[in-house]
């Protein structure tokens, strides 16, 4: 078993990522220690995948430092490296929320592709590889042995010659991890590896990740919503909410942290004051609610917002607040026009949400009514395998979220 040390393999310091006026990640600092599994968790929209994208070079952070320390002591500032050098030089590999295999290639070929850089170097970037000269023959044999090794470790050796797209969903997840391990990473970043897995597949994933940690010398940083996976295999848990760290520690500490409980489960109105005082956010209590009490607010008639520019709203606790109303406002103006958070639909990440927004699709109701033609066009744009949107049931999920949003408004 590879012994864990207090030495950080990854150190994130004061990381911030802004998209225009939106702060997706704000002043985040944490460490992932060598030989451990570190989980990055939080509600949907907390900024977890944005952090991953900064670590792996897909985004360049607005500010902050990300330091990767290799086992030989070499340090790399990931925010300064070109994205393609992060796996090659810093030895950081990742998987994605959405499976990104070469579905038309065999399972075995997918693992050989992961070793492309090594094979190209052995060929001297010439025809030596084609002719099998120089050290290419040895490198090729070693690459095949490594591919077979990880196929055996992931239980896929019997499907080596099958197209990757023919594998069941859980097997495709394991193949992604095997492909990442073929790059020889010192830090493996997994974005929701248990998403869509049944309990048996989740248990097999737990065994695989523990085996990687204990025998390969690879540290793991994972994003996961399945708390049974997180609590069973993690050595260290970092919790985000709205792009900021709210808890950091051992799983036993984090799961009992009032801030984490409030972020995940919410609290009843009568318990808000007690929880906020306990977590040190009592200053929020003084902020008025966004709307008046229904028994003391304006009448729900069609002219409820057609009165004077300002009205005094009396709450049940005899507190009065000044309600500002724009001139000429009508009841129709009160209907929310902000876009829905489409990333709440499992399978829609930040990239997919951007592509949908570019098509004018920003609400759950629009996703729920996608046509067959629109689905095909979107899958082509996001380079997804055909049928993925239907398989992940974006329409059904979005329809349920739209219904929930409608019920909340009423």
What labels would you give this structure?
410 residues; Rossmann fold; alpha/beta; single chain; 6-stranded mixed sheet
Quaternary structure of the protein: single chain
Q: What strand line-up does the widest sheet have?
A: 6-7-8-3-9-10
> Uncertain runs with pLDDT below 50, 5 residues or more?
281-336
Annotated CATH topology of the largest domain: Rossmann fold
Give the rounded overall mean pLDDT: 79
CATH domain class of the largest domain: Alpha Beta
Distance between the termini: 56 Å
Please, how many domains? Answer: 3
Helix content: 25-40%
Task: Kindly summarize this structure in a few lines.
The protein is of the alpha/beta class and 410 residues long.
Can you characterise this structure?
The chain has 410 residues and is of the alpha/beta class. The protein folds into 3 domains: 8-114 and 152-262, 3-Layer(aba) Sandwich (Rossmann fold); 288-334, no CATH class; 342-409. Helices cover 37% and strands 18% of the residues. A 6-stranded mixed beta sheet has the order 6-7-8-3-9-10, sandwiched between helices. A 4-stranded antiparallel beta sheet has the order 2-1-4-5, covered by helices on one side. A two-stranded antiparallel sheet has the order 11-12. Helix 8 (199-216) links the parallel strand 7 (187-191) and strand 8. Helix 3 (107-113) packs parallel to helix 7, helix 4 (116-122) packs antiparallel against helix 6 and helix 6 (136-153) crosses helix 7. The radius of gyration is 25 Å and the shape is globular. Mean pLDDT is 79; it is low at 281-336.
């Amino acid at each position: 078993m590879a012994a864990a040390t207090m030495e950080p393999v990854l150190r994130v310091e004061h990381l911030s990522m802004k998209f225009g006026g939106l702060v997706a990640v704000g002043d985040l600092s944490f460490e992932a220690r060598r030989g451990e599994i570190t989980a990055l968790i939080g509600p949907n929209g907390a900024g977890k995948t944005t952090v991953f994208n900064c670590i792996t070079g897909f985004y360049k952070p607005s500010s902050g430092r990300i330091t990767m320390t290799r086992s030989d002591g070499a340090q790399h500032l990931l925010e300064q490296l070109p994205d393609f050098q992060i796996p090659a030089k810093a030895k950081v590999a990742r998987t994605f929320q959405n499976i990104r295999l070469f579905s038309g290639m065999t399972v075995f070929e997918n693992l050989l592709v992961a070793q492309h850089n090594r094979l190209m170097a052995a060929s001297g970037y010439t025809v030596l590889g084609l002719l099998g000269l120089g050290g290419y023959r040895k490198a090729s044999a070693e690459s095949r042995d490594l591919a077979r090794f990880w196929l055996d470790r992931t239980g896929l050796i019997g499907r080596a010659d099958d197209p990757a797209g023919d594998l069941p969903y859980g097997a495709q997840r394991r193949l992604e991890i095997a492909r990442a391990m073929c790059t020889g990473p010192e830090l493996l970043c997994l974005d929701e590896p248990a998403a869509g897995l049944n309990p048996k597949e989740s248990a097999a994933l737990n065994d695989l990740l523990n085996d990687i940690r204990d025998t390969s010398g690879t540290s793991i940083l994972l994003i996961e919503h399945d708390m049974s996976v997180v609590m069973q295999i993690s050595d260290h848990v970092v919790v985000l909410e709205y792009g900021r760290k709210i808890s950091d520690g051992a799983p036993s500490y984090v799961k009992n942290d009032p801030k984490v409980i409030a972020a995940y489960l919410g609290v009843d109105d009568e318990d808000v004051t007690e929880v906020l005082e306990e977590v040190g956010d009592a200053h929020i209590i003084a902020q008025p609610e966004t709307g008046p009490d229904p028994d003391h607010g304006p009448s729900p008639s069609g002219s409820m917002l057609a009165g004077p520019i300002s009205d005094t709203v009396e709450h049940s606790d005899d507190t009065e607040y000044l309600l500002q109303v724009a001139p000429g406002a009508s009841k129709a103006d009160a209907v929310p026009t902000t876009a829905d958070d489409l990333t709440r639909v499992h399978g829609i990440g930040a990239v997919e949400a951007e592509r949908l927004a570019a098509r004018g699709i920003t609400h759950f109701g629009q996703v729920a009514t996608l046509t067959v033609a629109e689905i095909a066009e979107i899958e082509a744009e996001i380079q997804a395998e055909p049928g993925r949107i239907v398989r992940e049931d974006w329409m059904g999920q979005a329809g349920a979220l739209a219904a929930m949003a409608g019920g909340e408004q009423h």
